[in-house]
Specification:
Elements: H1 3-24, E1 30-33, E2 38-51, E3 54-66, E4 75-83, E5 88-91
Antiparallel strand pairs: 1-2, 1-5, 2-3, 3-4
């Protein structure tokens, strides 16, 4: 594959992922961001741990979807995430969710 073909493939994969996200976001309650992943989920439990001065977080997500264009199966029944970085959990408000027109409607 030449670099242009790879670029087109990645652009199409990202567009497909965005469209999937747009179609399913309203079925989830929370957005969870870690340093490595972005999740949509209906249940989230965050447990902070402090061991020897180091703080880390353990997350348990149920009925989740993960933003990862290289992953063939993005829907996850249960997942456990461990991280030493910040975790952001937001409850979605579906009344005012608007989507940017950056990728069009197709």
């Amino acid at each position: 594959m030449d670099p242009d073909e790879i670029e087109r493939y990645e652009t199409q994969a990202e567009l497909s992922l965005y469209r999937e996200y747009r179609d399913i976001v309203r079925t989830f309650t929370y957005v969870v961001e870690t340093e490595r992943r972005f999740y949509l989920t209906n249940e989230v439990e965050v447990t902070p741990h402090n061991e020897g001065g180091d703080v880390w977080f353990e997350l348990h997500l149920t009925d989740a979807w993960v933003w990862d264009m290289y992953r063939p199966a993005r829907f996850i029944k249960k997942v456990r995430v461990l991280t030493f970085r910040d975790v952001n959990v937001e409850e979605l408000s579906h009344d005012d969710t608007e989507f940017p027109a950056m990728f069009g409607d197709g």
